[in-house]
Amino acid sequence: MKTILITGSTDGIGRETAKELADKGHRIIIHGRSQTKAQKVKEELDSINPEAEHKIVIADLNSQQQVLDLSNQLKDEEAKIDVLINNAGIYQNSLEFSEDQIEKTIAVNYHSHFILTLLLIPLLKESADPRIINFSSMVHAHNLNVDNIWDPINFNGSQAYSDSKLAMILFTFKLDKILDNITVNCLHPGVINTKLLRQGWGAGGSSVEKGAETPVYLALSDEVRGESGSYYVKKRKKKPTSAALRQELQDQLWNKSIEMIKYQEILNKIPDRFLEVQT
Ligand SMILES: NC(=O)c1ccc[n+]([C@@H]2O[C@H](COP(=O)([O-])OP(=O)(O)OC[C@H]3O[C@@H](n4cnc5c(N)ncnc54)[C@H](OP(=O)(O)O)[C@@H]3O)[C@@H](O)[C@H]2O)c1
Protein backbone atom coordinates (compact mmCIF):
# COMPACT_ATOMS: atom_id res chain seq x y z
CA MET A 1 0.00 0.00 0.00
CA LYS A 2 1.46 3.35 -1.08
CA THR A 3 0.97 6.60 0.83
CA ILE A 4 0.02 9.25 -1.71
CA LEU A 5 -0.24 12.98 -0.98
CA ILE A 6 -2.40 14.87 -3.48
CA THR A 7 -2.53 18.64 -3.19
CA GLY A 8 -5.97 20.03 -3.98
CA SER A 9 -7.77 16.70 -3.64
CA THR A 10 -10.99 18.32 -2.43
CA ASP A 11 -12.36 18.88 -5.93
CA GLY A 12 -12.00 18.18 -9.66
CA ILE A 13 -9.20 16.02 -11.02
CA GLY A 14 -7.39 15.76 -7.68
CA ARG A 15 -10.44 14.37 -5.94
CA GLU A 16 -11.11 11.85 -8.71
CA THR A 17 -7.44 10.81 -8.72
CA ALA A 18 -7.69 10.27 -4.96
CA LYS A 19 -10.77 8.07 -5.39
CA GLU A 20 -9.17 5.91 -8.06
CA LEU A 21 -5.91 5.49 -6.18
CA ALA A 22 -7.84 4.58 -3.00
CA ASP A 23 -9.84 2.09 -5.04
CA LYS A 24 -6.58 0.46 -6.13
CA GLY A 25 -5.72 -0.11 -2.49
CA HIS A 26 -3.65 2.92 -1.57
CA ARG A 27 -3.70 5.34 1.33
CA ILE A 28 -4.41 8.96 0.48
CA ILE A 29 -3.31 12.07 2.31
CA ILE A 30 -6.07 14.44 1.24
CA HIS A 31 -4.87 18.01 1.05
CA GLY A 32 -7.17 21.00 0.81
CA ARG A 33 -7.85 24.45 2.17
CA SER A 34 -11.37 23.64 3.37
CA GLN A 35 -11.88 21.20 6.24
CA THR A 36 -15.54 20.68 5.27
CA LYS A 37 -14.71 19.73 1.67
CA ALA A 38 -11.79 17.54 2.77
CA GLN A 39 -14.01 15.72 5.28
CA LYS A 40 -16.49 14.86 2.51
CA VAL A 41 -13.68 13.42 0.35
CA LYS A 42 -12.38 11.43 3.32
CA GLU A 43 -15.84 9.89 3.80
CA GLU A 44 -15.85 8.90 0.10
CA LEU A 45 -12.37 7.37 0.34
CA ASP A 46 -13.22 5.57 3.60
CA SER A 47 -16.13 3.89 1.90
CA ILE A 48 -14.06 3.01 -1.20
CA ASN A 49 -11.13 1.63 0.78
CA PRO A 50 -11.84 1.36 4.52
CA GLU A 51 -8.60 -0.52 5.22
CA ALA A 52 -6.29 2.42 4.53
CA GLU A 53 -6.20 5.14 7.14
CA HIS A 54 -6.77 8.09 4.83
CA LYS A 55 -5.89 11.40 6.37
CA ILE A 56 -6.70 15.07 5.92
CA VAL A 57 -4.16 17.89 5.95
CA ILE A 58 -5.17 21.51 5.61
CA ALA A 59 -2.98 24.28 4.21
CA ASP A 60 -3.72 27.31 2.06
CA LEU A 61 -1.11 27.29 -0.69
CA ASN A 62 -1.50 31.04 -0.78
CA SER A 63 0.79 31.18 2.25
CA GLN A 64 4.42 30.08 2.55
CA GLN A 65 3.98 29.81 6.32
CA GLN A 66 1.16 27.30 5.84
CA VAL A 67 3.28 25.30 3.38
CA LEU A 68 6.04 25.17 6.00
CA ASP A 69 3.56 24.13 8.72
CA LEU A 70 2.18 21.42 6.43
CA SER A 71 5.63 19.96 5.75
CA ASN A 72 6.46 20.06 9.48
CA GLN A 73 3.22 18.24 10.30
CA LEU A 74 3.91 15.57 7.67
CA LYS A 75 7.47 15.07 8.89
CA ASP A 76 6.18 14.65 12.46
CA GLU A 77 3.38 12.26 11.56
CA GLU A 78 4.49 10.24 8.54
CA ALA A 79 7.28 7.70 8.08
CA LYS A 80 7.35 8.14 4.30
CA ILE A 81 5.54 9.51 1.28
CA ASP A 82 5.60 7.29 -1.81
CA VAL A 83 3.96 9.64 -4.28
CA LEU A 84 3.57 13.41 -4.17
CA ILE A 85 1.03 14.73 -6.67
CA ASN A 86 1.24 18.50 -7.02
CA ASN A 87 -2.22 19.07 -8.42
CA ALA A 88 -3.81 22.09 -6.72
CA GLY A 89 -4.45 25.01 -9.01
CA ILE A 90 -6.42 28.18 -9.65
CA TYR A 91 -7.30 30.49 -12.51
CA GLN A 92 -7.44 34.16 -11.53
CA ASN A 93 -9.49 36.68 -13.48
CA SER A 94 -8.05 39.60 -11.57
CA LEU A 95 -4.75 40.54 -9.99
CA GLU A 96 -4.47 39.42 -6.38
CA PHE A 97 -1.48 38.70 -4.20
CA SER A 98 -0.60 35.87 -1.84
CA GLU A 99 0.10 36.39 1.84
CA ASP A 100 3.73 36.80 0.76
CA GLN A 101 2.97 39.45 -1.87
CA ILE A 102 3.38 37.13 -4.85
CA GLU A 103 0.82 37.12 -7.66
CA LYS A 104 -1.68 34.48 -6.57
CA THR A 105 -1.66 32.21 -9.64
CA ILE A 106 2.10 31.79 -9.60
CA ALA A 107 2.10 31.45 -5.79
CA VAL A 108 -0.57 28.72 -5.61
CA ASN A 109 0.03 26.83 -8.86
CA TYR A 110 3.80 26.86 -8.84
CA HIS A 111 5.81 28.46 -6.04
CA SER A 112 4.10 26.76 -3.09
CA HIS A 113 4.53 23.42 -4.83
CA PHE A 114 8.21 24.21 -5.44
CA ILE A 115 8.66 24.86 -1.72
CA LEU A 116 6.53 21.92 -0.56
CA THR A 117 8.39 19.49 -2.81
CA LEU A 118 11.83 20.54 -1.60
CA LEU A 119 10.69 20.32 2.02
CA LEU A 120 9.24 16.83 1.52
CA ILE A 121 12.31 15.27 -0.18
CA PRO A 122 13.41 13.56 3.10
CA LEU A 123 10.02 11.80 3.38
CA LEU A 124 10.04 10.77 -0.29
CA LYS A 125 13.53 9.33 0.15
CA GLU A 126 12.10 6.83 2.63
CA SER A 127 10.01 5.21 -0.13
CA ALA A 128 11.22 2.28 -2.23
CA ASP A 129 9.74 3.82 -5.39
CA PRO A 130 9.33 7.55 -4.80
CA ARG A 131 7.55 9.60 -7.45
CA ILE A 132 6.74 13.29 -7.84
CA ILE A 133 4.03 14.27 -10.32
CA ASN A 134 3.55 17.92 -11.26
CA PHE A 135 0.41 19.24 -12.94
CA SER A 136 1.09 21.43 -15.94
CA SER A 137 -1.19 22.14 -18.90
CA MET A 138 -1.21 22.12 -22.68
CA VAL A 139 -1.64 25.89 -22.46
CA HIS A 140 1.77 26.34 -20.82
CA ALA A 141 3.50 29.49 -22.06
CA HIS A 142 6.00 29.79 -24.90
CA ASN A 143 8.28 31.99 -22.83
CA LEU A 144 8.72 33.25 -19.30
CA ASN A 145 9.97 36.51 -17.86
CA VAL A 146 11.26 35.17 -14.55
CA ASP A 147 11.48 38.64 -13.00
CA ASN A 148 7.97 39.78 -13.98
CA ILE A 149 5.79 36.81 -12.94
CA TRP A 150 5.80 37.53 -9.19
CA ASP A 151 4.38 41.05 -9.54
CA PRO A 152 3.32 41.40 -13.18
CA ILE A 153 3.27 44.83 -14.75
CA ASN A 154 0.25 44.17 -17.00
CA PHE A 155 -1.77 41.40 -15.36
CA ASN A 156 -3.59 39.03 -17.65
CA GLY A 157 -5.27 35.95 -16.09
CA SER A 158 -4.63 33.72 -19.04
CA GLN A 159 -0.97 34.74 -19.23
CA ALA A 160 -0.48 34.23 -15.47
CA TYR A 161 -2.02 30.75 -15.70
CA SER A 162 0.11 29.76 -18.72
CA ASP A 163 3.23 31.12 -17.01
CA SER A 164 2.51 29.08 -13.88
CA LYS A 165 2.11 25.94 -15.97
CA LEU A 166 5.37 26.52 -17.87
CA ALA A 167 7.02 27.10 -14.48
CA MET A 168 5.85 23.63 -13.41
CA ILE A 169 7.58 22.05 -16.41
CA LEU A 170 10.80 24.06 -15.99
CA PHE A 171 10.81 23.04 -12.30
CA THR A 172 10.23 19.38 -13.20
CA PHE A 173 13.08 19.26 -15.67
CA LYS A 174 15.54 21.05 -13.40
CA LEU A 175 14.58 18.97 -10.35
CA ASP A 176 15.09 15.83 -12.39
CA LYS A 177 18.69 16.86 -13.03
CA ILE A 178 19.37 17.32 -9.31
CA LEU A 179 17.56 14.30 -7.87
CA ASP A 180 18.75 10.76 -7.77
CA ASN A 181 16.47 7.87 -6.85
CA ILE A 182 13.28 9.97 -6.89
CA THR A 183 11.46 10.33 -10.19
CA VAL A 184 9.74 13.57 -11.21
CA ASN A 185 7.43 14.01 -14.18
CA CYS A 186 4.78 16.48 -15.24
CA LEU A 187 1.56 16.20 -17.20
CA HIS A 188 -1.37 17.77 -18.96
CA PRO A 189 -4.53 15.96 -17.77
CA GLY A 190 -6.74 16.82 -20.76
CA VAL A 191 -9.38 19.52 -21.00
CA ILE A 192 -11.56 18.54 -18.07
CA ASN A 193 -14.89 19.86 -16.84
CA THR A 194 -13.98 21.34 -13.44
CA LYS A 195 -14.53 24.62 -11.68
CA LEU A 196 -11.06 25.77 -12.75
CA LEU A 197 -11.94 25.21 -16.41
CA ARG A 198 -15.27 27.02 -15.97
CA GLN A 199 -13.49 29.92 -14.26
CA GLY A 200 -10.99 30.38 -17.07
CA TRP A 201 -12.65 29.13 -20.20
CA GLY A 202 -16.37 28.56 -19.52
CA ALA A 203 -18.20 25.25 -19.83
CA GLY A 204 -16.97 22.16 -21.67
CA GLY A 205 -14.35 19.54 -21.22
CA SER A 206 -14.19 15.80 -20.60
CA SER A 207 -15.03 13.94 -17.40
CA VAL A 208 -12.87 13.98 -14.28
CA GLU A 209 -12.41 10.22 -14.79
CA LYS A 210 -10.60 11.03 -18.04
CA GLY A 211 -8.55 13.70 -16.21
CA ALA A 212 -7.38 11.18 -13.59
CA GLU A 213 -6.01 8.69 -16.13
CA THR A 214 -2.52 10.17 -16.61
CA PRO A 215 -1.85 11.02 -12.93
CA VAL A 216 -2.98 7.52 -11.85
CA TYR A 217 -0.73 6.00 -14.53
CA LEU A 218 2.30 8.05 -13.45
CA ALA A 219 1.66 7.26 -9.78
CA LEU A 220 1.36 3.48 -10.11
CA SER A 221 2.43 2.03 -13.43
CA ASP A 222 5.47 -0.22 -13.60
CA GLU A 223 6.02 1.11 -17.12
CA VAL A 224 7.22 4.40 -15.67
CA ARG A 225 9.12 3.01 -12.70
CA GLY A 226 12.49 4.80 -12.78
CA GLU A 227 11.35 7.03 -15.67
CA SER A 228 11.95 10.69 -14.90
CA GLY A 229 12.11 14.15 -16.41
CA SER A 230 9.30 14.00 -18.95
CA TYR A 231 6.05 15.75 -19.81
CA TYR A 232 3.07 13.39 -20.34
CA VAL A 233 -0.20 13.78 -22.18
CA LYS A 234 -2.66 10.85 -22.40
CA LYS A 235 -0.12 8.59 -20.64
CA ARG A 236 2.49 9.26 -23.32
CA LYS A 237 5.63 11.37 -23.33
CA LYS A 238 5.17 14.56 -25.28
CA LYS A 239 7.49 17.40 -26.19
CA PRO A 240 6.54 20.63 -24.41
CA THR A 241 7.19 24.10 -25.88
CA SER A 242 10.85 24.76 -26.64
CA ALA A 243 10.97 27.28 -23.76
CA ALA A 244 10.44 24.42 -21.30
CA LEU A 245 13.60 22.74 -22.58
CA ARG A 246 15.81 25.83 -22.20
CA GLN A 247 18.30 25.02 -19.49
CA GLU A 248 19.15 28.67 -18.91
CA LEU A 249 15.47 29.43 -18.22
CA GLN A 250 15.18 26.42 -15.90
CA ASP A 251 18.17 27.73 -13.92
CA GLN A 252 16.94 31.32 -13.84
CA LEU A 253 13.51 30.27 -12.58
CA TRP A 254 15.01 27.97 -9.98
CA ASN A 255 17.30 30.64 -8.55
CA LYS A 256 14.56 33.26 -8.54
CA SER A 257 12.20 30.78 -6.83
CA ILE A 258 14.72 30.31 -4.02
CA GLU A 259 15.10 34.11 -3.78
CA MET A 260 11.31 34.49 -3.42
CA ILE A 261 11.19 32.28 -0.30
CA LYS A 262 10.29 34.62 2.52
CA TYR A 263 11.17 32.62 5.62
CA GLN A 264 14.67 31.72 6.73
CA GLU A 265 13.16 28.68 8.47
CA ILE A 266 12.12 27.32 5.07
CA LEU A 267 15.58 27.91 3.62
CA ASN A 268 17.16 26.23 6.65
CA LYS A 269 15.09 23.11 6.02
CA ILE A 270 15.85 22.78 2.32
CA PRO A 271 18.92 20.56 1.73
CA ASP A 272 21.92 22.62 0.54
CA ARG A 273 22.19 20.96 -2.85
CA PHE A 274 18.80 22.42 -3.78
CA LEU A 275 19.82 25.90 -2.67
CA GLU A 276 23.21 26.01 -4.37
CA VAL A 277 22.18 24.97 -7.83
CA GLN A 278 24.86 24.89 -10.50
CA THR A 279 23.93 26.92 -13.55
N1 LIG B 1 -9.47 21.23 -15.83
C1 LIG B 1 -8.67 21.27 -16.88
O1 LIG B 1 -9.10 21.26 -18.06
C2 LIG B 1 -7.19 21.33 -16.69
C3 LIG B 1 -6.36 21.35 -17.82
C4 LIG B 1 -4.97 21.39 -17.64
C5 LIG B 1 -4.44 21.40 -16.35
N2 LIG B 1 -5.29 21.39 -15.27
C6 LIG B 1 -4.68 21.40 -13.93
O2 LIG B 1 -5.27 20.38 -13.15
C7 LIG B 1 -5.12 20.72 -11.76
C8 LIG B 1 -6.43 20.47 -11.04
O3 LIG B 1 -7.37 21.42 -11.48
P1 LIG B 1 -8.93 21.11 -11.63
O4 LIG B 1 -9.27 21.41 -13.01
O5 LIG B 1 -9.24 19.79 -11.04
O6 LIG B 1 -9.53 22.30 -10.72
P2 LIG B 1 -10.51 22.35 -9.46
O7 LIG B 1 -11.62 21.38 -9.63
O8 LIG B 1 -10.84 23.78 -9.28
O9 LIG B 1 -9.60 21.82 -8.26
C9 LIG B 1 -8.52 22.57 -7.79
C10 LIG B 1 -8.09 22.06 -6.44
O10 LIG B 1 -7.06 22.93 -5.94
C11 LIG B 1 -7.43 23.39 -4.66
N3 LIG B 1 -6.92 24.73 -4.37
C12 LIG B 1 -7.14 25.87 -5.06
N4 LIG B 1 -6.54 26.91 -4.45
C13 LIG B 1 -5.94 26.42 -3.35
C14 LIG B 1 -5.19 27.01 -2.30
N5 LIG B 1 -4.94 28.33 -2.25
N6 LIG B 1 -4.72 26.22 -1.32
C15 LIG B 1 -4.98 24.90 -1.34
N7 LIG B 1 -5.68 24.28 -2.28
C16 LIG B 1 -6.17 25.03 -3.28
C17 LIG B 1 -8.95 23.41 -4.70
O11 LIG B 1 -9.50 23.51 -3.41
P3 LIG B 1 -11.07 23.90 -3.19
O12 LIG B 1 -11.79 22.60 -3.32
O13 LIG B 1 -11.09 24.47 -1.82
O14 LIG B 1 -11.41 24.88 -4.27
C18 LIG B 1 -9.21 22.08 -5.40
O15 LIG B 1 -9.07 21.01 -4.50
C19 LIG B 1 -4.65 22.18 -11.73
O16 LIG B 1 -3.28 22.23 -11.50
C20 LIG B 1 -4.96 22.68 -13.15
O17 LIG B 1 -4.13 23.73 -13.53
C21 LIG B 1 -6.63 21.36 -15.42
Automatic annotation (TrEMBL):
Family: Belongs to the short-chain dehydrogenases/reductases (SDR) family.
Extent of the signal sequence: none
Protein name per its UniProtKB record: NAD(P)-dependent dehydrogenase (Short-subunit alcohol dehydrogenase family)
Keywords: Oxidoreductase
Annotated organism of origin: Halanaerobium saccharolyticum
Any one GO MF annotation of this record: oxidoreductase activity
